[in-house]
Amino acid sequence: MTETIGVKQIWNIISRGKKILFASTFICLLISATYAFVIATPMYSNSAQILVNQTNRTTNGLADVQVDLSLVDTYTTIITSPRILNEVNHQLNGDYSIEGLTKMLRIESDASSQVIKISAVATSPKIATEIVNTVVQVFKEQVPTIMSVNNVSILSEARVMNKQKQIQPQKQMIMIVGFLAGIISGVLIVLARFFWDTTIKEPEELQAVSGLPLLGVIPHFSQDDVFEERGRKK
User: Fold this and answer.
1) Is the pTM of this model over 0.70?
2) Which partner from 52, 131, 213, 218 sits 20 to 30 angstroms from 124, CA to CA?
């Protein structure tokens, strides 16, 4: 076997291992499809937007807006605080823990905006919608007693849509990853088998290893060929 292998030889090696390549790709696709369509739990998301302004003003105009923007991070922390989430859990009949609600909630805010987006990820659109709207209402009720804020505007509430898309699992992406993983693993298996197999398969390999000239090649005969030849002689 030659010590150096070119791109053409590698391509030929992979071509001879088509069955392994197809089998590997099929198995990985099957595993990916099973996970995406059977095992993985469908997850849905819904969101609401709120706007919070201070009641007690010490400045006017643009300065007021800058003060509100500086407090957005504080509001987002309050939303996920135990005080708020305990009341949310109470209104939801104690179905969730604080840790569970924290993992389900997503709080987003733009550095240049006073709008806070509250999202929830759950196993159904109805549950996600219920959690988001409850968090918004509890925050609106509790924040005046926590800070000098009495102006929470709900810009948009979460609503259950007729045909709401899943956000997880991303089935198309999982299938693409499975397809690529199948091809890569198949190529690696074919190459590994070739490099670990030290047997001589081609006449040219024998000539390269021994350094002797090739005088002839004995053709391969199967048992059926032998019987057929004997039948002709008779």
Assistant:
1) no
2) 52
